[in-house]
UniProtKB/TrEMBL annotation:
Regions annotated as coiled coil: 557-606
Entry's transmembrane regions: 64-84
Gene3D superfamilies: 3.40.50.11350
Annotated region described as Disordered, given as residue ranges: 474-517, 645-672
Composition-biased stretches (Low complexity): 504-517, 655-664
Species annotation: Collybiopsis confluens
Record bears the keyword Membrane: yes
Keywords for this protein: Coiled coil, Membrane, Transmembrane, Transmembrane helix
Name of protein: Uncharacterized protein
Amino acid sequence: MCHSNIYSFFSCSRMVRLVNPSLSRPFPFSPRAKHSNDHLPLPSATLRHRKPPRLGNSLLTKRYIRLLILAILLAVVYLFFPLYSRSVEPIQLYYKCKPHKCTRNPDLVLLPPPYPPTSPPTQNQREGFPPLFEQWIEHERSYWQHAEDDGTTKFVYMRNHVFASGWGNALQEMILNTHLAYLSGRSFVFDNYTWDRSPLDYSSFNGKVTASRVPVSAMLAGPIIGGTFDSPHPDPLFPNAHSQPHPPSVSSEYYEHVCSNQTRVILDTDKLHKSVGNWDGEQNLRVFVDYLRSFSERCIEFELDAEHVFNIWMFGSPDFLTLWPSLSQSPILQQFTYSPLILAAYERNRHFFELPSLPNQNQYSDTTALNEAYASTPDSDLLMSSSRLKKHLYNITTIPLLPSSRLTLPLVPLERLSSLYPHAPASPSLKDTIPGLVVLHIRRGDFEGHCENLIEWRASFHAFNSFEDMRERDGFDAGEAGGGSMNPSGGEPVEPKVPSYHRPSSSSSSSLSSSSMELEPSEESFLTWILSWLGFGPSQSEKDLAWETYRANLTAYASAKEDYRVKKEKYENAKGKYLERCFPDIEQMVRRVRRVREDVAEATAAKAAVDGDGKGSDTAPLTRLYMMTNGKPPFLDELKAALQADSEAQAQTTPSSSSSPSSPHRLPPWESIHTSRDLMHGHGERQGGGGGGLGGLGWEEQYVAQTLDIYVAQRAEVFVGNGFSSLTANVVMLRRAHGVEGVKTRLW
C-alpha cells in the first residue's frame, strides 16, 4: 500500500512522516475523516401528539369523499405492487428480520471494478497516487445495521488499535479484538487499516506515497467487518457467552454518531494487564471479558494512547496459546471471509497457483453470472427500501442512513459469490485446498535488521507459530540459540600506545601480557634525555608514572580484547542461528524446502500404510511453487534457479542416495515457480488452454495484494512461513482452525 509493492509494509513500526507538500497537488481530505457526521442519520426527534386541524366546509358530500378515498387507495395498490415486487422482494429475502435476529443472511458485498478497466483512469491514478477506495467506504456506510439505532446495542471501540504497522500486525489484533467484543456481548466497532492518523488522505513510507487509510471491507468480509454471525460453536472456555444472538459490527463513524449524546466509558488497559501479571492468553482474555461485561453503559472505548489490549509481549509468548480453544471456535475464524476484490484477483490469476486443466476442460468458469452482476444497477434502492421496511415493521423512529449516490459498483449477497467466483471460495475450508501448491513466505528488505534486533530481545517464535506439534517439528529455542546476546558496541578495543621514550625489547614476546613485556630506551631516547637534562623533557618520575599507566592500560586492553572476542563470537553464533530461521539465505531455503517435501511424502506414505488402501491422504504431488515475498527481482531469479536445479537433481536421484537417507521417496521437479512480483505484473504463462480473463492485478488490487497472498497461503497444500512473522501467524491460525495437517504447515 506504501507503493505498488504491498510488502513495503513489512516490519513497519516506525513513526509516520507526512508527504512533502511539494507533490504535484494538495492531498484531499478523507471522505471518512475522524468524527465526520456526513451521511449519518440525524438524532431522533421527540414525537408530540397534536389534534388535527378542523377542515372547513367541503363541497363534496361524505359519500363522494368516501368514494374518492377508495379510488385513491385502489390506485395506490395498483401502482405500488409492481414496484414492491421489484424492489422489496430481495429485501424480504435478505433484510426482513428483527434487529440481530435475521432468519436469512443479510450480508451484501461490493463487487470490484471490472478488469481490464472499462472506464478511463481517475485523476489519482493518472498522477501516480494510490487508490482511496471510496466505493468501499460508501459501501460500509450503507450497511443495514447503520440504518437505525435500536437503542439497546452495546458497543466497544478499540480506539487504541495499531497504526503505522504492517497488515499482518493489524489483522492479528483485529481478530483478537473482535473475538473479545463477541465474548463480551458487545458490537465491535471496526475502523480502517490505518497507516497515518492525520486527516490527510495520503502519507508516506520510505519516501513513497501511501494511502493513510484503507477500508477493511476492500480486503475482508464476514463478521469481522459487519457481517452476520452464524449460530455459535461450543466454546470450551466461555460456555455461557453466547446465550443471545450477537449484534453485528459497526463502523467507527456510526459509533461516533450514536454515542455523541451517550455517556462514554473511557478505559485504560494498564491496570488490567497488571492485575493478571503475565501473558497467559486465557487469563488475560477472561479478565477483559468480565471487565467489559461489568458496564451497563452502551458506549465503551479504550483510550487512544493506551497500551493495546493484545500487545506484542502476548503475541510473542507461547503462554498466549491458552486462549486458542476459545478463539478456534469463534465465528471470527470459522466465518473468516475475503472480499470480492480479493476473490476476483485470485480467479483471474489462478493459473499461477492451480494445476493445469485437462484438455477438455475450460480453465475459467462461465462468466454469464458475473457479467449480469456488472450489468445490474447499484442496489441503493434496495438499501433504502430495507431501512423503510424495518422502520415500518418495528416502529423505529430514527431517520435511516442514506446510501451515497456515489456508490456505482454493484452489490450482491455474500452467498452468491460462489457462483460468481467458483474457483475462489470466500470462506475456504479444508476441501478447498489448492492441490500440489507449496507457498513460501520469504521476508527480505530491511527485515534482516529486525532479525538482528530479535537476538538482543531474546525473542522466540510468534505465539501462533508455537503450537506444540510445530515446536516438536520446527521449534526454535531462543536460549539455545544464544538469544539475549549483545553485539559488542564501540568496536574492537584499541591497543594503548607505548610511551615515546620506551620501546619493546627485541627479545620480548608478542603476547599482550604485561608480565612478558620488557621495555628499553628507544632510538629517540637520547634526544629525550638531552631535553630532560636541559629541563624541557619529562622528569624521571613522570616517565615512571607514564610507564605504570601504560602497563595498567595494556592489562586492561588484554582483558577487554578477550571479553570482546568472547562476546563477538557468542553474538555471531546466535546471529547465524537466528538468521537461518528468520532471514535464511538461498542455500538454506533450498535445503529446507527439500526437507519439507520429503516430510510430506513420508507422512502420505505412512497414512497409506495405516489405511491399507495405498492412497494415503489426498495430497497431490507437490509440483507448483509460489513465493509471497518482498524480495528484489535479481535475488528472486537466483532463488528460482536454485530451487529448480535442486528439484531436478532430486528427481534424478535414486531414493537410496537421497540427501535424507530416511526418505525413500523420489521428488518430482517443479512444474512452475512464481512470486508476488510475477503476480503484480501478470508475468507467467497460462497452461491448459485457459482463457476468459487477463492476468496481473488491477489498480486497487495491487494495494491489497498482501491479503491475496494470505488467501493463497491459507488454501495451499503446503505452507512454509517465517516463525517470527505476524503475517505467517495469521496464515497458521486460519489453516489450523480449518484442520490442515500439521506436517503441511511449516516454518523455516
